[in-house]
Design a protein that fits this description.
With 417 residues, the protein is an alpha/beta fold. It is built from 15 helices and 14 strands. The strands form two sheets. A seven-stranded mixed beta sheet has the order 4-3-2-5-6-1-7, with helices on both faces. The chain has a seven-stranded mixed beta sheet with strand order 9-8-10-11-12-13-14, sandwiched between helices. Strand 2 and strand 3 form a beta hairpin. The protein is globular, with a radius of gyration of 23 Å. InterPro entries: EF_Hand_1_Ca_BS (IPR018247), P-loop_NTPase (IPR027417). This is ATPase.
Length: 417
Amino acid sequence: MRIIPRRIEISKLKTPGWKMLYGRRKTGKTFLVEHFLQYDEFFFVGRDGTVYDRNRNGKMSYREFFAIFPRLLNGVVVVDEFHRLPGEFLDLLHMNSGKGELILITSTLWLAKKILLGKGSPLLGIVRPIKISLIDERDILIGLSKDLSGKELIEAATYLREPLLIPYYTPPVRKFLSDFLHDSSLMIKELIGEIFTEEEKRLTLVYEGILKGISNGKTTSTELSSYLFSLGLIEKDNPGILQKYLGILTEMGILRKVEVIGKRRKKFHYYHVSPLFDLHYYLEAKYAYTELDIPEKYIRKVVEEKLPLHVEDFIAELFSKLYGMKRLYIELPNLQLDVALGSFKRIEIVGEVKWKEFVGRDEIRKIEEKLSRIDARRFLVVPSLYALEKEPEGVEVLTPEDILRMVIEDEGSRYRL
């Protein structure tokens, strides 16, 4: 089994003090703690409130757990799915705050909203929230480069940031994705459904409507509001209504937002963090594929259609981290760029990603003209130099080999000590 060392998250987890790991299910929260951290006690809370002692392979009632918990804080204690304990556990945490080392783990959307966005949060100031999302682009590239290279490395890294895919993956990734989506559509649907707790079930359709709308290209709150209103999921076509939903989905690491440059009012575009989720919701919208047994060739067609866009998003996020710059969306007349990075609303790097087998002279000329409109560093990403009919002028060309080299150099600077 491939194990990807997630050095960036691990460095955060090793900081002293009480911590709460949060994020949606199957992002590797428990795996990170079990395999990369030292701990003395590890408890898992079942759905019925029973507390399982992972170290001793035993179980106890929550009251028995409450009785021994304060004494355990002399060491490092892990409580997985702690939100399933009664509310008085939060009082117990208040009474013992600051003692020992405590790691809390939760996948519950409702609790994350209450802790991160609500006033008077019960754990605010007591624990340090650490969001665990998909595997960092740099870590997945380094991890997969032992077995993969070139075009397959970039494409596999784009999707295997989703930890649940790693144990099943066999190259090529395009066929693997088609097979996985065809055979596991209900598993993905159930995983997404588990994001919402009992308290949020009445809102599940709104959340799912947002996720489906984004997969359909409706990436602003205005577009999403009109889309949800047309489906009867909200009572008014009012973008303001959606802000709390978009905020929660963003905080949970399900969506990311990119600020728009070129508008007076602050505006954002929203995208799926997980390309697997994006494929899932697009297939749901287009074919209702979890309810109908559609031929795999239709799924493969969607994978082929979406994959270049997902690679583009992967490159943009990767470069944002490599250069320590904010990702931006340029909204100017007749100008739309795949990648724009900057700080304080100043654009410093722009780029295009042409993830296909052939880029002709006319297209290269258009790329040159488009990128020359912005006074910034310019680059073009292609799967191979052989894809170019001619090299563009004034534009740096980057291949998978160049990108991997950049990541290795960055890793060396981060972990040299």
